[in-house]
Write a structure and sequence with these properties.
Elements (H helix, E strand, L loop, with lengths): L4 E3 L10 E2 L9 E6 L7 E6 L6 E3 L26
Antiparallel strand pairs: 1-2, 1-5, 3-4
Length: 82
């Protein structure tokens, strides 16, 4: 069973989604962004389950508390940054 954790580490709504590549549920999670820095690159991203940008399976949508500007998952515990 693969880990269902995902993260969108960048601020833009439609930016890269990184899927945890580990099996089972892990903390920290780890995934790879390919061809982002330059063609042929592989950047490994490691994040903790407590990161407020972490979500399971499908993207839960934008936070309604900031008129659609917040790109963090619903129910996050962080503050909105302008």
């Amino acid at each position: 069973m693969s880990c269902p954790a995902r993260i969108k580490p960048f601020r833009r709504i439609n930016e890269v989604e990184i899927k945890c590549e580990l099996t089972g549920w892990h903390d920290p999670h780890s995934g790879t962004i390919r061809d982002y820095a330059y063609k042929g690159s592989a950047t490994v991203i490691t994040w903790f389950d407590s990161d407020r940008r972490t979500y399971d399976n499908e993207w839960p949508g934008d936070c309604n508390g900031n008129e659609g500007q917040c790109v963090l998952p619903l129910g996050h515990l962080g503050r909105h940054n302008p």
